[in-house]
Amino acid sequence: xxxxxxxxxxxxxxxxxxxxxxxxxxxxxxxxxxxxxxxxxxxxxxxxxxxxxxxxxxxxxxxxxxxxxxxxxxxxxxxxxxxxxxxxxxxxxxxxxxxxxxxxxxxxxxxxxxxxxxxxxxxxxxxxxxxxxxxxxxxxxxxxxxxxxxxxxxxxxxxxxxxxxxxxxxxxxxxxxxxxxxxxxxxxxxxxxxxxxxxxxxxxxxxxxxxxxxxxxxxxxxxxxxxxxxxxxxxxxxxxxxxxxxxxxxxxxxxxxxxxxxxxxxxxxxxxxxxxxxxxxxxxxxxxxxxxxxxxxxxxxxxxxxxxxxxxxxxxxxxxxxxxxxxxxxxxxxxxxxxxxxxxxxxxxxxxxxxxxxxxxxxxxxxxxxxxxxxxxxxxxxxx
Amino acid sequence: xxxxxxxxxxxxxxxxxxxxxxxxxxxxxxxxxxxxxxxxxxxxxxxxxxxxxxxxxxxxxxxxxxxxxxxxxxxxxxxxxxxxxxxxxxxxxxxxxxxxxxxxxxxxxxxxxxxxxxxxxxxxxxxxxxxxxxxxxxxxxxxxxxxxxxxxxxxxxxxxxxxxxxxxxxxxxxxxxxxxxxxxxxxxxxxxxxxxxxxxxxxxxxxxxxxxxxxxxxxxxxxxxxxxxxxxxxxxxxxxxxxxxxxxxxxxxxxxxxxxxxxxxxxxxxxx
Amino acid sequence: xxxxxxxxxxxxxxxxxxxxxxxxxxxxxxxxxxxxxxxxxxxxxxxxxxxxxxxxxxxxxxxxxxxxxxxxxxxxxxxxxxxxxxxxxxxxxxxxxxxxxxxxxxxxxxxxxxxxxxxxxxxxxxxxxxxxxxxxxxxxxxxxxxxxxxxxxxxxxxxxxxxxxxxxxxxxxxxxxxxxxxxxxxxxxxxxxxxxxxxxxxxxxxxxxxxxxxxxxxxxxxxxxxxxxxxxxxxxxxxxxxxxxxxxxxxxxxxxxxxxxxxxxxxxxxxxxxxxxxxxxxxxxxxxxxxxxxxxxxxxxxxxxxxxxxxxxxxxxxxxxxxxxxxxxxxxxxxxxxxxxxxxxxxxxxxxxxxxxxxxxxxxxxxxxxxxxxxxxxxxxxxxxxxxxxxxxxxxxxxxxxxxxxxxxxxxxxxxxxxxxxxxxxxxxxxxxxxxxxx
Lengths: 384, 272, 439
Prior knowledge:
The complex is a heterotrimer.
Chain A: H1 2-19, E1 42-46, H2 53-69, E2 73-76, H3 84-96, E3 101-104, H4 113-121, E4 126-129, E5 139-143, H5 145-159, E6 163-168, H6 175-187, H7 190-196, E7 199-201, H8 215-231, E8 238-241, H9 244-256, E9 266-268, H10 272-280, E10 285-288, H11 291-307, E11 331-334, E12 340-346, E13 349-351, H12 356-361, H13 368-372
Chain B: E1 20-29, E2 32-42, E3 47-52, H1 58-66, E4 73-78, E5 81-83, H2 88-93, E6 96-99, H3 111-115, H4 130-144, H5 160-173, E7 178-182, H6 190-205, E8 209-213, H7 217-223, E9 226-231, E10 234-240, H8 246-255, H9 264-271
Parallel strand pairs in B: 3-8, 3-9, 6-7, 7-8
Antiparallel strand pairs in B: 1-2, 1-4, 4-5, 9-10
Chain C: H1 9-27, H2 32-51, H3 59-84, H4 92-113, H5 123-149, H6 153-172, E1 177-178, H7 182-187, H8 197-225, H9 232-253, H10 260-270, H11 284-302, H12 304-314, H13 316-321, H14 326-352, E2 354-355, H15 363-373, H16 385-404, H17 409-433
Antiparallel strand pairs in C: 1-2
């Protein structure tokens, strides 16, 4: 009995350790670590939330391919599972494994700084991937999150220039949610229209944040907002949701309450379920960031940094549709924290229902079946 | 009402054949012989006092009889027939009821709930029949403690004596023929102790056989016919109450020596 | 009572009156704990009503609240049994997640592959049955390791929480899955997801008759055995209050209406003119919760299994010495949790109409909080199922109310934490003051 107990405890702990654990190197086209000659560039990648579908489906394979095609190897790509402390030890591990360049998807831009210091001490160049790290040492490779916000709001405001808006934001601790995307919204004219009275905000003026960007939380919050608006006899004319996981919850809330007329809804990421909502008319715009290209750019940049640690010299080559407005070579970027760092900022692609064909032909990880489930093919031509 | 195996005569007094025989019982815990080749028996209408120091093995031996402990070897006979007592349910089947030192009551349940624990009365469709159980409990508690009224309160809020009464009622209700009582008066005041002693005498007269495990030598002398003394897992001796003095019993308990082997000096040492 | 002889006539009257109120309440035999919870819920709801300027207590809002609370409350009913028997289940959120994903995959892909196409009759029932089976299987596995192998429940269910959430990812290959049967949407409430006006009245009437019947039967049984009975006025007051409450809630819920588009579909069938409002009544998730609560309460109070759960919680040794198969009892509590998680998953996935990777995340915290606020004690042996359901509603009404008046997650979490601590502190204080009923 005692022996069985011990075995089961060991098994449980082992499973527990693996269950929340890393992504392990199962990328297509090769294994991580080992192989290659002494001159092969060794890259370490630290994910923050591999649970979200897009990373495994697009960023990782594209990055791995770019690195391996260029003769580099990956020493490891652990997942910090939303834990900033865990990410610190992940970075330690990568440095110990001999990484010559690091690609960091920071869970928290401030909490990652000690890890960054270690990289600096070891003279390892660092790419801040998708999420900002407030330090001039890094090369910031991302989609233009401000431009994403602007694209979201542009589309919605064009559809609903005057009316009552609900603002649904992501996790309060994420700079994208609190700063960059709202900046884009304002660039599209949201702030001015609110001041002039064309647009009225239902609910908190700053918008409603969603813990962990969770779909169920967004749904619950939106249900409360709908109820309150109904009670006050206010019509919801448009909903600006910052991303797809929250937009999914908003759509479920609106559908569940049979809200009519159904307001235009924004999102970003191009998640399959949301693209399906686009086809069904439950979402109006989805700002798609072809993260295949982002992963590719980061892979290319990593290889270059191995050879020459000058961030400013990095030049990438990506699809024209996403090519940076400022050119293919890294340029200066002024952060909200008043740091200036070198950056490569790709352009997002806003998708309306009519644009779904673009996604289907671009080989995105969302299949045509997923996107077109239940869609009226007479209306959505891309789904025929 | 459940019925258990009816054995022994209901007339008073000690009948001839033993109702319980435990033969060559051994129980070891990792090399320590808690019960070492113990043989003991009990006749209907008889009280056998089981005494010994801490760790002598009394409780373990009784746990074997009550089904809470499986012996490594040995045999138990009820009315001359060998039986297998693998768990508490088996013991109850043979009419063996136990009143544990800790009472083994579930504090959060009320008196009827505890009385019928594991043997609940059910309706035709298998639902717990709380009212019938309460009714039966009122009746049996009425015999033991007519002043008891708290049938719906959790037993944790009852006094020590009342809790003891519930534990005893449980044993009586199910027509125990063999009763194991482990330190029944240890936590009771004088009035309640007297009640318990009267009850034991009453049960004896009904032909119930009782193993009485106790530290109280006077209780043991007052109530038992025979006394078995255990020392380090073995039986030192089983004697008739009238054949020994309290000092000799003490000597057996403390020194492990049979009465014949105790010297005057031993007794002086014990008393000194 | 003091020295009455020395009191002045005015004081005497006061003393008698004060004793009177407390004894009046005692004579009705209402569990003061439960009564306090209902009162607390009432205070919270009325409080939000006032803060929101009188718009909070509308039928449509209470429908939302009911739907939001059901998912957690369903699981909380079983969590009471687990905690009462001195265990814990941290894996419930992940169980909900995996069963939700199983439902989605079944209806989107697997059932069709097995030849059970979209038009197959009762396809949703097959999916539901399989999901419940999956939940029960995981529950049985955890229960076995806890009860028979002897690994502490905290460790086992923590391992379950982590590993099962990982399995969700592998099952779906990392993406959310859509394509659920329309019937599943009913489980989640939503547009057509209410039982309608007639059935709601039916529920009200049946409920009232049941309560009156129970009171009647209870009194008759006590008489039969000669036990003390409640004073007749107390029976009448209880019965009248319960009927008024149930019928009142039914009437209130019937003031919630289907969206006109859906109502007109019904009007077309019944021949009523288009534009006629059609009462929606109780949403399905709330009805599911009611059924689950009744069943689990019945198991806990009317079956030997439930009695053994409480006995084990009160004194594990006493239970096994009484001949109870305690290991099987514990294992069964975990199987029940698995089934309840599967039911909650149907509600969650029905509400969302898609199975995301993080459905059910953090449910374990809300469920445990609901049980604890509802009076379940970690010491074991104490806790009621209706209490846990009330606890879930108390916690959810806070979350919903705060969102309603525009305070989002951080504020909601702070409030939830405070309420949890207050509830437990209050519980400990009342326990120290006197005796308590336990079931």
